[in-house]
């Protein structure tokens, strides 16, 4: 059991095409403050949304290989587009627990809806994959209906720091109109970038619509998995605080734009390092 003890000190790995997965990282810091993370933002391949699933899967598999040599105890695919491209493909690549972000968000939305009218917004890749409809169909026991709407420009607005611009509001009004017309009462932010636009989305949808970010539920599920496997970091029991030095941030593109957004979003002074993956330029 000595080996299992060492495992508990290892990091939780998270990946996304850019800064979106930091919304999940932020929630991990909140709910599991004694855990260390390794974050990979595949900014050289951003955005994932419009790419074929097979290509997204090959990017993700390379990042998983990178994670494997870092010493990790769990992987969170903190990206809906990469989750929709096929979680089952990633399971074969690693031998630690793996969690995507689609199922946790749906469960939370089903708990919340009063009218049984739920909306989901995401990248074109996520929405057109039908992954939300499929998992929703499996989890929905009470006759709820899911209305989906792709919002591809939202990720560009977030990565370019334009969330407070008039263009963001205009684009949101156009994308969200069909969901307003459908009179949904719950809206799943089916892209980990979207919580960073939640104020404009809430403003357009109105106060009667509850926004569901999968980040909270994903962090909660992470805790459940680690607890069950005896993998929670034992520092939690000793009451010692973890500092940001133990978290590691990597990007496949230039580090500076990512670092600037990440510092702002996490409220922590982090440093990101650029890593060139073996097949990045093929
Ligand atoms: N954050 C992403 C998601 O959850 C990816 C956005 C993109 O790269 O298109 O889908």
Defining traits:
282 residues, alpha/beta, Rossmann fold, 2 domains, 6-stranded parallel β-sheet, 4-stranded parallel β-sheet, 46% helix, binds D-glutamic acid
Characterise the protein shown here:
The chain is α/β, with parallel strands linked by helices and 282 residues long. The protein has 2 domains: 2-101 and 216-274, Rossmann fold (3-Layer(aba) Sandwich), CATH 3.40.50.1860; 102-214, Rossmann fold (3-Layer(aba) Sandwich). Helix content is 46%, strand content 16%. The chain is built from 14 helices and 10 strands. The strands form 2 sheets. Strands 4-3-1-2-9-10 form a 6-stranded parallel sheet, with helices on both faces. Strands 6-5-7-8 form a 4-stranded parallel sheet, with helices on both faces. Helix 2 crosses helix 12 (214-228), helix 6 packs across helix 12 and helix 10 packs across helix 11. It binds D-glutamic acid (DGL). D-glutamic acid (DGL) binds at residues 16-17, 20, 46-49, 79-81, 123, 126, 155, 191-193. The site of D-glutamic acid (DGL) has 16 residues, from helix 4.
